């Protein structure tokens, strides 16, 4: 058995580390300065910790990163994007939120780059940003990260987004959504994709790169990774699971419209029954007789 003193020492070290990190959070908040409105709502302690973690707890670098995000959010306004504005980009199921979670309860986004029908950079980025914001909105209270499953069925260089667009997407995700990814599963990518990835990987930071996994059917290591993240009963057959996956755009749009109302309420928009400018859709009127 280990001496009690060892456990006391480890506990003391953990407490010191927590205190040091708390101090860094306070230092970062002071460095950013007074905030108001959505900026204040965005910059929770958990948010500041993610920026510090992304920059190895360097306050100066974290401050620069966070200030750039606040500037981006003030102009891009990702929380104001509504499904009806981007639905046409993904009407064939290019990206969708799964109806299951991973083993840790994380939101799962399923991507099918083979379904890509437009190379329009801004449209693709807004569509992805909308779904990332939506995934975050739907995370359990004890989770901060999401999981991505990427199905390469039908993918080719003809359906691929241009390198410049891929670079912009990577930049937005890394710099404005730090520490939000738990796993990016590139499932059964064709060999030709490796050539594309060799180019874009230079835009990916080290921490994000470690979360990107090339996974293949019937390979033990790949199967172990998938099992560690997912229950096979929930996982679609396209990813080695046992359930069927069929994208229903009408149903998905209905769910996204409901989530748009949640988003409006979360960010404090004035959500009136007749107002659809912020995605505030009136509740359907029930025609069923009231219970007596």
UniProtKB/TrEMBL annotation:
Domain of life according to the entry: Eukaryota
InterPro entries, alphabetized: CRAL-TRIO_dom, CRAL-TRIO_dom_sf, CRAL/TRIO_N_dom, CRAL/TRIO_N_dom_sf, PI_Transfer_CRAL-TRIO
Residue ranges constituting the CRAL-TRIO domain according to the UniProt record: 93-247
Residue stretches of biased makeup (Low complexity): 12-22
Molecular function, one GO term: phosphatidylinositol transfer activity
Pfam families: CRAL_TRIO, CRAL_TRIO_N
Region (Disordered): 1-23
UniProt name for this protein: Sec14p-like phosphatidylinositol transfer family protein
Organism per entry: Actinidia rufa
């Amino acid at each position: 058995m280990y001496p009690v003193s060892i456990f006391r020492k480890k506990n003391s070290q953990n407490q010191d580390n927590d205190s040091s990190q708390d101090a860094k959070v306070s230092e970062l908040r002071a460095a950013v300065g007074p905030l108001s409105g959505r900026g204040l709502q965005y910059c929770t302690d958990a948010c500041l910790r993610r920026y510090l973690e992304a920059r190895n707890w360097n306050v100066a670098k974290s401050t620069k990163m966070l200030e750039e995000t606040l500037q981006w959010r003030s102009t891009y306004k990702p929380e104001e994007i509504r499904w009806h504005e981007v639905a046409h980009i993904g009407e064939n199921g290019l990206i969708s939120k799964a109806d299951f979670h991973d083993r840790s309860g994380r939101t799962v986004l399923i991507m099918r780059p083979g379904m890509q029908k437009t190379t329009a950079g801004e449209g693709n980025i807004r569509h992805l940003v909308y779904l990332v914001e939506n995934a975050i909105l739907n995370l359990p209270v004890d989770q901060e990260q999401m999981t991505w499953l990427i199905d390469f069925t039908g993918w080719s260089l003809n359906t691929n987004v241009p390198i410049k667009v891929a670079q912009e997407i990577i930049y937005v995700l890394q710099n404005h959504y730090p520490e939000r990814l738990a796993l990016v599963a590139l499932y059964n990518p064709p060999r030709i994709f490796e050539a594309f990835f060799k180019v874009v990987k230079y835009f990916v930071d080290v921490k994000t790169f470690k979360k990107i996994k090339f996974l293949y059917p019937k390979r033990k290591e790949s199967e172990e990774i998938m099992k560690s993240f997912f229950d096979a009963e929930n996982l679609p057959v396209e990813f080695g699971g046992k359930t069927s996956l069929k994208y229903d755009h009408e149903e998905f749009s209905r769910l996204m419209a409901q989530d748009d109302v949640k988003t409006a309420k979360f960010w404090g928009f004035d959500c009136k029954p007749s107002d659809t400018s912020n995605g505030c859709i009136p509740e359907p009127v029930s025609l069923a007789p009231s219970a007596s």
